[in-house]
């Protein structure tokens, strides 16, 4: 069975994505998906956390819209879950934000506790409160805030990720090394060349393994021009070979044009690193259970155009 555990719509992420939630689900069905995880971005709580694209018509108006939009998302996701239950298994979730832990940890716990929520993705899009995946300019601002070096920024990113992992234990850890996106050296080797950063990676992987979390293979790295997926090869190999960890699989789509993008490349990437299966969630009479899907079965379900 083919699936994604990470997706967004223009309906509930306006300015950031395209198409309605229903259009995305219908397109996923046409491509052979059997499961889709809906994971719109969680509401944020401060004007300083808005992206440049969200400042119009006014920052205050945007901020005031975020919580009502989240409630509208849950209602629509529940409707579609029922409407298409015979065609695709719909999981309802959200993508978390760890901008300021003391502020966002209680909010994430509250959102995750909603009766309709199946899971959530633990992601970092900020370091020192500065977006690190919006553009190169903001990435460099984050570098300066972390002492002026990329190694300093990466170290802070993995430290903030560690705080999120230990406090909240997300089932799915989103794009583990997103910090690479605007780096001057996105494929730099950490093992053996940057011992401090590698130690932080190992520390974080150990935490994820201890609570039985999953690393997401996120194929959006390929469409954004990176040679390796998220996570990079050395991290996937360490996770599989040394920790016996589990991988899940996502397109991180932001509209129908990105559903399934680079999926065959992503599957080949994992197979080349010795991964034989990926994991998703399945709803049973007993509740949600972990479900293993072989790479071959996954590939065989796809009807990519």
UniProtKB/TrEMBL annotation:
One Pfam family matching this protein: PHP
Entry-linked InterPro entries: Histidinol_P_phosphatase_HisJ, PHP_dom, Pol/histidinol_Pase-like
Assigned keywords, A-Z: Amino-acid biosynthesis, Histidine biosynthesis, Hydrolase
Coiled-coil segments: none
Biological processes per GO annotation: L-histidine biosynthetic process
MF (Gene Ontology): histidinol-phosphatase activity
GO cellular component: cytoplasm
Keyword Hydrolase: yes
Pathway assigned in UniProt: Amino-acid biosynthesis; L-histidine biosynthesis; L-histidine from 5-phospho-alpha-D-ribose 1-diphosphate: step 8/9
Entry's EC annotation: 3.1.3.15
Reaction catalysed by this enzyme: L-histidinol phosphate + H2O = L-histidinol + phosphate
Domain PHP: from-to ranges: 5-220
NCBIfam families (UniProt xref): hisJ_fam
The family this protein is said to belong to: Belongs to the PHP hydrolase family. HisK subfamily.
Stated name of the protein: Histidinol-phosphatase
Organism: Podospora fimiseda
């Amino acid at each position: 069975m083919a699936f994604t555990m990470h997706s967004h719509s223009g309906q509930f992420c306006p300015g950031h994505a395209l198409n309605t939630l229903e259009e995305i689900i219908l397109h996923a069905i046409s491509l052979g998906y059997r499961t889709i995880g809906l994971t719109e971005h969680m509401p944020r709580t401060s004007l300083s956390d808005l992206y440049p694209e969200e400042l119009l018509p006014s920052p205050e108006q945007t901020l005031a819209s975020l919580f009502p939009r989240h409630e509208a998302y849950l209602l629509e996701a529940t409707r579609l879950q029922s409407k298409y239950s015979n065609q695709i298994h719909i999981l309802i979730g959200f993508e978390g934000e760890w901008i300021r832990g003391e502020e966002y940890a209680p909010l994430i716990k509250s959102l995750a506790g909603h009766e309709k929520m199946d899971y959530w993705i633990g992601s970092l899009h900020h370091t020192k409160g500065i977006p690190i995946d919006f553009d190169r300019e903001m990435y460099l601002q984050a570098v300066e805030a972390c002492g002026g070096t990329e190694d300093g920024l990466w170290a802070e990113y993995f430290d903030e990720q560690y705080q999120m992992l230990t406090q909240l234990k997300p089932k799915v850890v989103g794009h583990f090394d997103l910090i690479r996106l605007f780096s001057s050296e996105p494929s730099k080797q950490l093992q053996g060349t940057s011992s401090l950063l590698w130690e932080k990676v190992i520390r974080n992987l150990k935490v994820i393994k201890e609570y039985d979390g999953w690393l997401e293979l996120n194929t959006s790295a390929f469409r954004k021009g990176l040679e390796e997926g998220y996570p990079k090869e050395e991290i996937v190999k360490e996770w599989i070979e040394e920790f016996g960890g589990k991988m899940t699989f996502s397109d991180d789509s932001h509209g129908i044009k990105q559903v399934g993008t680079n999926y065959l490349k992503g599957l080949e990437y994992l197979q080349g690193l010795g991964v034989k299966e990926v994991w998703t969630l399945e709803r049973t009479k007993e509740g949600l259970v972990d479900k293993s899907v072989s790479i071959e079965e996954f590939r065989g379900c796809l009807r990519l155009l």
